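Let us work through a complete example step by step.
Step 1: write down the sequence.
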Amino acid sequence: MNPLNTEAFTLFGQHILWSDMIGNLFGLAALALGWRRSLLTWPVQFVSGLILFAAFYGHLTGSAGKQVVVMAVAVYGFWQWSRGRGKTADGHITPRFATWRERAAMITAAAAGTVAVALLFTAYPSLSWDPWPDAYIFVGTIVAMYAQAKGMVEFWFAWLLVDVVGVPLNFAGGYAFSGFVYVIYGALVLWGMRDWWLRSRRSTRPVLEGTPA
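Step 2: predict the structure and record it as tokens.
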């Protein structure tokens, strides 16, 4: 038996698993660091994905596969934020709103991706116990992380849309701690959205790579 999937404690009648608790605490920390525009958000997100992959592997194949994609996007995000371009004088990423073309591309990719992944999950039931909601969260998470990697304020909106389905799905699937954490995610997302929104409106000139601050 995977020790990560053993019970840590019981809360409000819900059985809290070690994997669920530890992995999602790292995920929560990653979101908070993302709010602060810290480069550390990506390695912390990677560790969260690694822990949840170890928990799901051999049990929920689709969920384990999702964590592989999450870790890959975390590497991409780290590369994007560490390149140096588009940073402000404080050394952090400069938040911006996506263009209408970028928004259309992300919405199209999210819709098409959700349908494709849901059909895959439906064709192979062992990959997911609830194909359509699971596919929605899977693809929505990837879109949100991609938008975050690009410094788009819309990434917070994407997380809100993921939370709407993620909270009830995690409780229904027995991952109570994930459900509780998604509720906290919602609060952090609202605060983070406000912060990035205001920063995107400021006329701070980006510091290009190799240019003195």
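Step 3: interpret the result. The beta strands are 7-11, 14-17.
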